[in-house]
Amino acid sequence: MHKDRILILGANGQLGSVLVDKLRERYGVDHVLATDITKPKIETGPFKMLDILNVDRLHETIADYKITEIYHLAAILSANGEWNPSKTWNVNLNGLLSVLEVAREDHIKKVFFPSTIAVFGNTTPRENTPQDCPLLPETVYGMSKTAGELWCNYYHKKYGVDVRSLRYPGVIGHQSMPGGGTTDYAVEIYHEALKKGKYTSFLKKDTRLPMIYMEDVIRATFGIMDAEASKIKIRNSYNLTSMSFTPEELAAEIKKHIPNFEIDYQPDFRQAIADSWTNSIDDSAAREDWGWKPTFDLASMTKDMIHHLKPKYQHV
Ligand code: AKB
User: Fold this and answer.
1) Over the stretch 168-181, which tens digit does the pLDDT of each residue have?
2) Within this chain, do residues 186 and 199 fall inside the same structural domain, yes or no?
3) Which among 117, 138, 203, 244 is the best mutation to test ligand 1's pocket, defined by most ligand atoms within 8 Å of the CB?
4) Which pTM value belongs to this model?
5) According to the model, what pLDDT value does residue 314 have?
6) Which of 15, 91, 141, 262 is the most buried (most CB within 10 A)?
């Protein structure tokens, strides 16, 4: 049995709900404590209601469950974040600061912090975006993650906290729905294609964004967390990618499986957010430092998504 005991903050989200089960497969059900501010739809092991801004409860939880590693996933995403900027800053940035401080005081062995392509902005090179580049994010979510990356670097350099981070592109998976992001269209489209045979995209047909399949995101997250500390040379956050496509290209791939599928386009406020992000990412630092390599492309992801989602909508 594994000695490590894992705490997941923000366990009910798109990634958290999948990561909880993957971590339980690796560490044992009772070694992974899932937490969030609301109850999960399905409990697959220990769960506790926990607000990341409540530092005393965080300390208590770590002591009670003898926690050794933290995955801090709680955040308000790019689109939802724009409805309440100060709340988004508070949850995303002050939440991270409480986690880092608690990790330092309680001698947590490793912390995972997801960053995002939302740290990029209009001054960032748009193609093959380098690891080190100008960051002038346009959303509060992006601002909070950019500042968060700097705080991770600071806590590592100053206090030796072993915090590791990835700049996630848009995440696509059949297991869960995203909540309030700009890349959400790339998950919704599969559900609507199978349910109704048509989808209205809130991004223009030629908006190219970096994306990754859930299986690869889990592999990347375990890849960086399993690596020897000496291999993690970047302590703000690693660029990460797998593929880049537009809504039109994604629709064309779906049409190969659902020939009658139709898409139309009604861009909303999320278009400006997407336009401020980059088209493709250079993740060679992650590949060189700790061996990152994606396995899914647009075609294999689409095949797998449809294979998993089809039974759900068969009788609709
Ligand atoms: C969002 O669209 O806000 C997220 C992200 C790219 O971080 N999926």
Assistant:
1) 999 999 999 998 99
2) yes
3) 117
4) 0.97
5) 85
6) 141
